[in-house]
Backbone:
């Protein structure tokens, strides 16, 4: 296939540029659902069952990136910037399937948010996100429940799937928290 550029001139505006460049992708049949094609290229299928996730992080940039990564996997994502807002949302929405909570937040930290969330919804799966290297503060939380920032590879998606109980070897839906 050849690339080509169309450069039409529009009076009073100048040249308009439109370039179409094919993007190579893995053509493995496992990545596609049926014959999805656009302009001759296969489009990867979404690999999710449209579960509703709650992302709790006080850093809006990190929250947006995390939510975007999860949406790309097909999840429906709600975002809040504090533990209090997360608990209010959990009071109003019984359809949230998983909470992804930053451990280090001002005011109410992620562990306290999780404790209060579990007092309201004991079966709610929780995955913690942290940028801290000192893991002694996380000694009571299993490694399968922690995603370290910055995210590496598919770790975020894999741990979310495991927490939802949709991956082989998943640890189920309940995350025990000790005081």
Residues:
């Amino acid at each position: 296939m050849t690339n080509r550029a169309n450069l039409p001139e529009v009076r009073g505006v100048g040249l308009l540029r439109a370039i179409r460049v094919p993007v190579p992708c893995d053509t493995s049949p496992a990545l596609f659902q049926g014959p999805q094609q656009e302009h001759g290229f296969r489009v990867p299928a979404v690999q999710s069952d449209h579960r509703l996730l709650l992302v709790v992080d006080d850093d809006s940039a990190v929250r947006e990136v995390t939510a975007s990564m999860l949406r790309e996997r097909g999840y429906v994502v709600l975002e809040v910037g504090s533990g209090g807002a997360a608990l209010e949302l959990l009071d109003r929405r019984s359809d949230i399937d998983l909470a992804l909570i930053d451990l280090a937040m001002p005011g109410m930290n992620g562990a306290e948010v999780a404790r209060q969330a579990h007092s309201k919804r004991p079966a709610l799966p929780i995955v913690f996100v942290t940028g801290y290297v000192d893991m002694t503060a996380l000694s009571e939380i299993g490694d399968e429940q922690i995603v370290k920032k910055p995210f590496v590879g598919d770790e975020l998606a894999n741990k979310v799937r495991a927490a939802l109980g949709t991956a082989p070897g998943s640890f189920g839906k309940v995350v025990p928290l000790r005081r």
